[in-house]
Amino acid sequence: MPGFNETPREIRSEMKISGYQDFRNANKADISLKDIFDYLRLHPNLPRDQSNNLLAELHSRLAAPWTCLVVVFIAIPCGAMSGRRNFFFGVAGIIAICFIYFVVQRVIFAFGSGGGMPGWLAAWLPNFIFAATGLFLTARAR
After folding, report:
1. Residue 63 burial (CB count, 10 A)
2. At what angle do helices 119-141 and 84-113 cross, to 10 degrees?
3. Do residues 73 and 96 both lie within one domain?
4. Residue 18: pLDDT band by 50, 70, 90 thresholds?
5. CA 87/CA 105 separation, integer angstroms
6. Domain contains 83
7. What Å distances lie between residue 70 and 23, 82, 92, CA to CA?
8. Which of 27, 37, 120, 134 could cross-link to 73 by cystine, CB 3.0-4.6 Å?
9. 130 vs 17, 47, 102, 112, 113, CA distance in Å?
10. pLDDT in tens, 39-82
11. What distances in angstroms separate CA 45 from CA 56, 61, 62, 114, 128, one per listed residue?
12. Do residues 40 and 79 both lie within one domain?
């Protein structure tokens, strides 16, 4: 139709993202990285709150696989302790630190998706902080 200036691809992209951004459907919607990239490419001038939310989600998904490596960096110094009593405290310490890591990760993500900091920083900051702490403790344990 000549009166419409949107393509079917843009309409599909809008439908997928709008389902994600609706508060009631936020937990139900599973949006792929490709859909986020397409939406950001098709809508370069998004409002700041919508842009922050999508960029935080995008970078959160890119940073998520690195969580495994960060947990290993945290666990190495706790597992390197010797003695029977230190082993128990090491395992308990690993569990506590990992719990704190996941809480910090979610809080900073919420702060980033709300516009308090850039989305990329909100997604990657917990990984950087805890990986650096784990590497420092590993170097100190030797």
Report:
1. 20
2. 160
3. yes
4. low
5. 27
6. yes
7. 31, 22, 17
8. 134
9. 32, 32, 10, 18, 21
10. 788 777 877 777 788 888 888 888 989 999 988 888 887 776 65
11. 16, 22, 23, 18, 30
12. no
In the chain, the N- to C-terminal Cα span, in Å, equals: 71
Q: Which residues have C-beta within 8 Å of that of residue 11, sequence separation ≥ 6?
A: none
Q: Which tokens belong to 126? A: 């917990």
The answer to whether residue 50 is domain-embedded is no
What DSSP assignment string belongs to 45-59? T--HHHHHHHHHHHH
Q: State the amino acid at position 77 in one-letter form.
A: P
Apex 140 CA angle, 136 and 141, nearest 5: 120
Burial class (CB in 10 A: 0-12, 13-18, 19+), 111: middle
Task: Give the structural domain span for 93.
Answer: 59-141
